[in-house]
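Sorry, explain these tokens?

***
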Amino acid sequence: MASKYYFLLGFILLFSCKGRNAETVPIKDSLYNTVERPSKTMSCFEYHKNKDTISLHIANKEDSILGELYYNLYEKDKNSGTVRGIMMGTTLYLDYTFYSEGKQSVRQVAFKLKGGYLVEGYGDMMMKNGVSYFKDTAALHFNDSLQLKEVECPQVNL
């Protein structure tokens, strides 16, 4: 079952957005077969329901995940900013630097790949050097009701 997640993750992070990149990269589609697939410059995920919107646009740059994150949740402060982090297993751990109410903040966010979509993780937080981090990433709860589905990426470069 874990191999399905790794294949799906490879698919999401390595397939190109339609027409974006003609380069190919070798990836494993099983334990024994290596195939050439188009490289992916960016992966984009969005959630839209009622008056709520969440957008996550990420790119794999060397050993890091870089991107942009946008929250517009009904009757809450809108915020957007940049993310930088890593993928561990099927979970993205990102530091989210954003502006809300005119003030810059940094907090850790997590998204788990589940069945072809991403869900955000929630848990107890602590402050360290002005940054809000999860106290225990192993104790995160992932909200399946907020599913960020993969969408075609806009024409921007991170």
